[in-house]
């Protein structure tokens, strides 16, 4: 290559960097107003196409228009790349990009509400179900796909879900509302938003309180034959009856659809300070393989989160964000079981109660330095220090007499501290080019320090086109439960390490007018997945012989498996008719495989290979309603434990399609009164989750019992706004 | 007891220092690059802009010295403007000025045929006075905030549901001789 040619290429590159680019030139005004704005991807307020991640923004208006009642529904109905399942009739699990970890408590997503980290200390869980965050107060939800530990530390394996509540200007006055899924649930709420001037400083308050109660429906559970209890030589009871039949299920039950939850969320702003708070008492059903049929297995979660934040532009170059936070929760889990050895008295029905408590209190400071004073070169640094404590106790009682059956076990009383430090450098030499690189170092006394890097590049090579490439890593620290909880059958883990995840992705996005088309490919690799290891009889006996335990153990948390996932994301969305018609389609295809320690690989259970959603709404002229329809599709999914339980053929649930039609509008003739009417229908009969005892196939029962699905639902809601 | 009083006074002083006055209570929610894209696009629909620009659209970004948020915003807006090749089909010339008196600002707009006047965050207390002074002056005033539009700028921006909203103050547009196409008014929040 000649020097002249090199010089001409260099000149062309230089010209491209320095010449103004007509970024919005081909995009019309409606298209610009459809741009989403996110903050969670890089802790910088930026458009979705500038962010170093694939993101979806779900607006509060969309939540109302499409009949959304919970965060889980929002992500399932309207987000790109996420899929949901219902292990019980009142709880959900969420996966992303083909990875759903069955039995997890959402701990592979990091949930943030108004800047406050929601994931608890003891279980690492986050709450996405009904009443986790009262939905009316939600301004928007940012769904940031992919590893996000670079700025947030543990748990951001599948992504970061950032919920932002409304400000007083958009949520003014007093509102009262009630919504009911006919015959199965009711949800009254009250909210308030207002602002005032205090000595020249603007103050505002927004809050919503809600009470959610679900009492049905009653669902039919296919029978499962559990066999003979080796302790009594009699068929397993699975009921409170003194003589069992060995059969679990075979009748209707509402034990998995009982829930209630009062909750409150709000924030107070005064100048540059913001105090946000959230409280919840959630009584929810749980799944447990050892639970007697039609007895109520439930957990009561109490949660309190407080976050005091401060943000200011101190100089034209230096901005500072800081917050102090408290995340306190406790949980009481109760199950009824006659299943030995979970119930040590073979004649009794046991009431097993696990009580846990976790508290995290910390401070985080994030200064950012705008070196060129114009946003082109910005360094963001942060330090996050947290003190944690966790306690637990496990008791077993005779369910009939209340007598204590065994001494307390599962005793945990642990305190420690963790520290995270991170730095992120962004560089945008031109509006058509953006680079982002950073890393976070997390210290946790339970394992060696973890580094989570991210490198991302964005190029707008042509008008209204954006190409991104991102590499990122993430981790999930073991929860306190996984690290410290033990009892006779569940010995403490040895040297449990954090789960690690790494991901690479590339995407191309094109906007034309008010339309947006996105296509991306991704590949993810997770290692060190924490799950229960089931001891064989020989291993359990050896464990006792080595003096490690007094009783033969059944299971133990270990870093066992690896998961890989490769696939694509595609989305098309837009508006027409000056925004009156709004629509979107999102599709994800992924091949996810689980590699177990023995080296064999199987498809990841409960995870669909193809899934997505489509939505459309049309704003009819008043007083006619908004009409909105959403469809959610999931391909066939292997049932939980499908490849390990021994059933043949391998149990799958077939592909499903869910449809929901929602009408919203103002009640004619009554100022301030509005309504929401939704009808839901699904083709599915069952979720891919096991119901009842996790048994192996027998001559009598050749397929597992799966959690049944509520196939239809009608929801009616009214809201009255005072002084509209 | 004296020590407690001293601590309380010190705490109060620190808090008072941290609490901002109303002059800098307004914070722009929409990223400045997107604001620039938006007002440059709206300017395409301003039927009077080509006639009053004399072949060159002059954009003035007004900042308030001593308010870091305002100064930083001004620099970012100016940087974003450098990526916009033409406004309303015309070349543009961009500059930053520190807030003079509203009357001096009006004189500046008249004497230099300013096409677009961008009011950065931190000017909220001056918005109404600026609007009053600019009445009859043919300039498209753009506020970085929604409150700015409510207080007297022709355009303003808000962020609702993670999406930008465009506010158009119709009386101000009329007073300043701005005629926006109905295409803009159909998708904007119009302040009557």
Explain this structure to me?
- By secondary structure, chain A is mostly beta strands.
- Chain A has a single domain (38-721), classed as Maltoporin, Chain A.
- Chain A contains seven helices and 42 strands.
- Chain A has a 22-stranded antiparallel beta barrel.
- The longest helix of chain A is centred in the first third of the chain and has 16 residues, at 3-18.
- Chain B has a single domain (27-191), classed as Rossmann fold, CATH 3.40.50.2300.
- Chain B has nine helices and seven strands; from the N terminus they run αααβαβαβαβαββααβ.
- Chain B has helices at residues 2-18, 32-44, 49-53, 68-81, 102-111, 124-134, 146-150, 170-175, 182-187, and strands at residues 57-63, 92-98, 114-119, 140-143, 155-160, 163-169, 189-191.
- In chain B, β5 and β6 (163-169) form a beta hairpin.
- In chain B, α2 crosses α4 (68-81) and α5 (102-111) packs across α6.
Low-confidence stretches of chain B: 9-25
**Which chains have the largest interface?**
A-B, 61 and 45 residues
What does the largest sheet of chain A look like? 22 strands, antiparallel, barrel
| Number of helical elements of chain A | 7
Rg of chain A over CA atoms, rounded to whole Å, is: 26 Å
Stretches of chain A where pLDDT falls below 50 for ≥5 residues?
A: 9-26
- By CATH, the superfamily of chain B comes out as Response regulator
CATH C-level class of chain A is: Mainly Beta
Number of strands of chain B: 7
Q: Number of folding domains of chain B?
A: 1
> What is the mean pLDDT of chain A?
90
CATH architecture of chain A: Beta Barrel
CATH topology of chain A: Maltoporin, Chain A
CATH topology label of chain B: Rossmann fold
Radius of gyration of chain B equals: 18 Å
